[in-house]
Amino acid sequence: MLQVLYIFIPMLVAILVPLLYKRMNNIHTGWFVLAVPVTLAVIYTTYIAQVAKGEVFTAELPWIPSLDISIISYLDGLSLLFSLLITGIGSLVVLYSIFYLDKHKEKLHNFYVYLLLFMSAMLGVVQSDHLITLYFFWELTSISSFLLIGYWYNRDASRFGALKSMMITVGGGLMMLGGFVLLYLMGGTYSIRELIVMAPNLVDQPLFTWSLVLLLLGAFTKSAQFPFYIWLPDAMEAPTPVSAYLHSATMVKAGIYLVARFTPIFAASELWVWLVTGVGILTLFWGSFFAVKQTDLKGILAFSTVSQLGLIMSLLGASAVAFHANGSIDTIKFAAFAAIFHLINHATFKGSLFMIAGIVDHETGTRDIRKLGGLMSIMPISFTVAAIGSLSMAGLPPFNGFLSKEMFLTAMLALQKFEFFGFETWGALFPIVAWIASIFTFIYSFYFVFRTFNGNYKPEQLPHKPHEAPIGMLISPILLAALVVTIFFIPNFIGNTFVKPAVQAIQPFLYDSPQAVDIHVSAWHGITPELLMTIGIIIVGVLLFVALPKWQGMYQRFPQALTLNNAYDKIMQGLDVGLNRISRRYMTGSMRHYLLYMFSGITIIVIGSLFVKDAFSISFQGASPINLYEIILIVVLLIGTAITILAKSRLTAIIGLGTVGYTVALFFVIFNAPDLALTQLVIETISVALFLLAFYHLPKLGKREERMRFQLNRAIVSIAVGVMVTLVALSAHSQKLIPSIAKYYEETVYSLAGGGNIVNVILVDYRGFDTLFEITVLGIAGMAILAMIKLRMNRKENTHENK
Predict the structure, then answer these.
(1) Fewer C-beta within 10 Å: the chain N or C terminus?
(2) In 3-state terms, what secondary structure has residue 689?
(3) What is d(CA 445, CA 440) in angstroms, rounded to the nearest whole number?
(4) Average pLDDT over residues 165-169
(5) Which of 53-57, 220-224, 496-500, 736-740 has the least mean pLDDT?
(6) CA-to-CA distance for 720 and 610, rounded, in angstroms?
(7) Residue burial 331-367, b: 16+ Cβ < 10 Å; e: rest
(8) d(CA 407, CA 434)
(9) 171 vs 176, 179, 265, 425, 450, CA distance in Å?
């Protein structure tokens, strides 16, 4: 149980944050919040040793037992790694935010509530073994990230970026939910572990491909894959701590996690291999190519994040090839290991770079790289951290990015060696595209660090006089930069402790335990094709970086009208105009029109369902005969209804209404329901009496008769509603799909409820809450009437006094 509760600790603490912010405003609220991720990181650290040996920890908290929905925390190598990233990077981000966000100028209670809510949501995503709870936490990440991105809601760009991210990621989440439902229909279970076990039996089912595509739509939108990446650059309007947390280490990695977790289920599909690998490599190229175009520091990092996520995604797709490789497994086994290893490396170097971008913005007042330069001597510590992060991102030694980039090139070269799925021909494109994309990665890495800290110092273009950031703001990026260097020298410790357990979770069809993952990481493998590709990347990258001013202008030649952002804007504008036009047509302000729409819709749905479900098996067997006196009562009922509607005076209408009520009471008597008849008689008597008492105050009917034109559409809808109700009643009477509950009432009315009158027991016990709410509604209505009467009396008294 405690394992499940760990997920909700940030959410529970978030409830206390506004109180702490209000009561202890002399202390930065971040200091209180910092204890949450630190404590959770320490707790999850205690699981490392056992999980590294292949152990798995589960805990379950029932949520909606009637629907078989539970919150199941499942900690294996993959989920534990992500949990440590969420809490570990979260601790550094909160520490960074304490010095980045001014406690006197910012609404810190809002910021930390949203951040803690997001932390709980991410922990829920990576630990959920239940498909429905995974979806719940998945959408909670979208909502909380929307709030974080739009934290500075007084800025138009912040609101636009927040809305854009939510529209795309929530839309993808709905697609993913469809995939989950199809998986449940195929496997009959919501458990991911159980679905993995039965994966060989799922691949041949007709819903399998649909489920695969829908699930990938959710993953691609969340992890900013092409063409859904367009929300990520606009999300850079968020405060830098948000960008460092959501867009380097957590939220954008949720899509990566989803693909990794479901690889054992879908790896057997050729479509999965091509979609994940192909979209990943395309995203890698697209993001790296357009990162060089950006002039905003966080914009460069946003597109670099897109490219790095594409790299990890392509490796996960390549890892699925191992399911089909058979004897050639040694050539592709590096893919899953490289994906997880680079995921860790990316979190370290990209987190530090986002923080440095925030520091530069904080100390100079701008993120425009065209105004920056010459800051190396002014901000030497920031430059050192930026250089370490950028060189690691470029894939140079002695930094951790070099190791995982070499493994990436190995995996891409291996793809063209497989003689299935067309890799023996089209597979040659993967190492080529990977090499070109790596060149642009090299360029934007150098572009970020050297255009900011090298070159000419331009104090006249800077809003503030720059200086080195306070030590409190530098602690977090320094620690991340230290990890970048440290991991390069102890890669196998990281591999054995964190990467191998995660790989075993991704590829259970290859490895029985983490120890079976026989991969050893080293910086030198001799003269290999990968090394030659790296040397080529460095040579071409340096040449293109030096010549950057001569060819960077080519980006301006791309027509804006053909961009994906422009397509998104046009779609949103079209929807806004079109839907407004539609709503103006039916939102007329007329209650008659609204009732017409509602009754039409209900009739079409119900009668259509009866047709589709073949529910017209109407039978009059066992029906009571219709006697003469019943026919007379029906006629009286119809006459009373007509009088009530067509009466020219209020008194006649009241009499007609009373006739309807008393006739219904007589029907209850005939049907042997004396209790209902008595209740109906009492209510009808009171209603008529009240009408008569208030008769003096009722508005009078006009002297002239108001003639209403006959309208065919209303007549059709009225007749259709009547036909619908009749068909439903006859169909329900004729088809008993489930036993009547009446028998249960008869058997338990005395033994369970202790009553002899079944009607009273149903109202008071079995439907106690229903009756209570009805009484409450009547009580509220009575109080409202009393208030209006008193208001009217007070107005009359005030009018009399004024006279």
Answers:
(1) C
(2) helix
(3) 8
(4) 95
(5) 736-740
(6) 14
(7) bbbbbbbbbbbbbbbbbbbbbbbbbbbbbbbbbbebb
(8) 12
(9) 9, 13, 23, 35, 39
Give the tens place of pLDDT for each residue, 130-148. Answer: 999 999 999 999 999 999 9
Q: Where are the alpha helices (DSSP H) in 490-563?
A: 491-494, 500-506, 529-546, 548-551
Residue type, 713: N
Say if residues 341 and 484 touch (Cβ distance below 8 Å): no
DSSP state of 555: G
Overall pTM surpassing 0.70 (yes/no): yes
d(C-alpha 248, C-alpha 224), whole Å: 12
Strand partners for 112: none
- Cα–Cα nearest to 319, from 388, 415, 428, 446: 415
Nearest to 36 by CA among 107, 86, 101, 81: 86
In the predicted model, what is the mean pLDDT of the chain?
90
In a 10 Å sphere around its CB, with 0-12 CB exposed, 13-18 middle and 19+ buried, how is residue 266 labelled?
buried
Q: Write the secondary structure of 524-535 as one string of H (helix), E (strand) and C (coil).
A: CCCCCHHHHHHH
Task: Select from 205, 348, 189 the least CA-distant residue to 266.
Answer: 205
Tokens 């405003």, located at residue? 25
DSSP-derived letter for residue 59 is: E
Tell me the one-letter amino acid at 137. Answer: F
Encode pLDDT of 380-398 as tens digits.
999 999 999 999 999 999 9
- Tell me the pLDDT tens digit for each residue of 59-102: 999 998 888 899 999 999 999 999 999 999 999 999 999 999 99
CA distance to 99, 623, 680, 726, per residue, from 633 (Å): 82, 18, 16, 19
3-class DSSP state of 130:
strand
- Tokens standing for 508? 């259970």
Task: Tell me which DSSP letter residue 229 carries.
Answer: G
Q: Find out whether 94 and 522 touch, Cβ atoms under 8 Å.
A: no
Question: In Å, what is the CA distance from 533 to each residue of 431, 433, 520, 529, 594?
Answer: 9, 12, 21, 6, 68
Length of the chain: 803
Tell me the pLDDT band of 330, cut-offs 50, 70 and 90: low
